[in-house]
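Complex 127.
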Amino acid sequence: MRANRVDTKPERLLRSELHRRGLRFRKNLRLDLERRHVRPDIVFPGPAIAVFVDGCFWHRCPKHLSWPQANAAFWEEKFRRTVARDRLDDAALAEAGWKVIRVWEHEDPADAASKICAEVPVGHTLR
Ligand SMILES: [Zn+2]
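Predicted structure with zinc ion bound:
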């Protein structure tokens, strides 16, 4: 099961913020890389920038990770697999020439947008 397939509120806020700043992008575009399919939350195809908004719980944000009380082994395995998949996605993207930006869902949308704006060259937001 994908932890981050649904369009979450932090993603929506970040997308609105990016739009407000004039950036144009694709959302949930599946990238068919040589080794795996990756579906970043926000994609700038021209400059080849992939953005993920990682949920604190699933992706194990160091500030907010919590451990469910019951079924510890089950959760540990689930979290391990989620984080391992993140790293495989990062590696596959980097190998294919993509820049990966990950922001935590707890990050202020304006701060996250600034981080992204700093990487996207002006005038090359969509193509
Ligand atoms: Zn967090």
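The pocket of zinc ion is lined by residues 56, 61, 63-64, 104, 106 (CB under 6 Å).
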